Amino acid sequence: MHLISTIAVIFAAFNCLTAAHPTSSEDFATRSVNTLDDVTIFVPPSTYTIPRTLYARTLLLETDGDETNVLLATWENYSPEPPYFPIYQSTDSGSTWAEISRVTDQVNGWGLRYQPFLYELPSEFGGFPAGTILCAGNSIPADLSATQIDLYASTDKGLTWTFVSHIASGGVAEPVNGDTPVWEPFLMLFEDEMIVYYSDQRDPAHGQKLVHQTSTDLLTWASPVDDVAYDVFDDRPGMTTVALLPNGSYIMTYEFFGAPEASFAVYYRVSDDPTTFDSAPGQVLRATDGTIPTSSPFIVWSPVGGANGILAVSANSDSAVFLNQCLGAPNAWTRVTTPESASYSRNLRVMPDGTLLITGAGVLSGSDNSVTTSSIDLNSVTLASCD
Ligand SMILES: *[C@@H]1O[C@H](CO)[C@@H](O)[C@H](O)[C@H]1NC(C)=O
User: Signal peptide position in this chain (predicted)?
Assistant: First the structure.
């Protein structure tokens, strides 16, 4: 969770792409794919509390299904109390959406209020079959007096949900240094363990730091391990997301309040082991046009685009995305415009046809937020070369 920045950063108004130097003629094969231009998933009613929606997340169901390319979406949903995570489904690659279920708080009596995350088990794990959908999120009472990252599961593709376990408990849900909340879970299976990454304000030595816990059964969770913790108390690294690189290493992005380059600058770290990011150096993300994206990043890797594929990063500061075909090389991030407006904690999802689905649910200051999605074709982008 981040403090609202008062530092205005003026970005170049035009998008300056670096000349393409494909390593082979096959790198940018011309293919015709359908892209989405600001498709509406959900317009909240006026009875919702402003900002009404935020923090969209999507999931592409890829495992063990009768249908292929089913998408799910959820978001922070500021409904009448108690809030819940809506589950919307698209069976046409994101063109149309309908509600199929709601993940409701089954244990705390508080509602499921902030920061949902959806994950599909790629293989049997912890007694749950491959294709089980997990939903982690922050259960918080109406008075915001506590934070509780909880885990739910669906074994029927998102139609019904069951509470699985409590992962982490924290204090008052305010992003104020000295308070003790937990925020923003991100799930990823690694070898024989489920990792949940999250932001943690409970350590008195750090206003906020990034940690993870692991589990072999989804029921009990090992003690938190640091991923990013700066020596300066007021520094606030936040909002972990992680992607697997094609060479077997992992890359994490985070926002860094306290970064020398810009308030909430997007940073990243690369590690052979996704449980040891704490010992990896941090690197600011700076595009070839000089842009430093800020706040609430999200990273994915796409196999499209040459031997290395393409890394894609979204951030709150920009409607554009930042693409890198060089495994995250610092000098090879290209800013690429998209039809999707900027949002707080926008979600990225790589589709089987090589499009990048970009889904947002509005901005922190928004009074008329809605949930929308767009896509760009990664088959036809022109990116900085890797030399
Ligand atoms: C994968 O590539 C990244 C970026 O060049 C590098 O930092 C990392 O060490 C590589 N990993 C392996 C296992 O070679």
Answer: 1-20
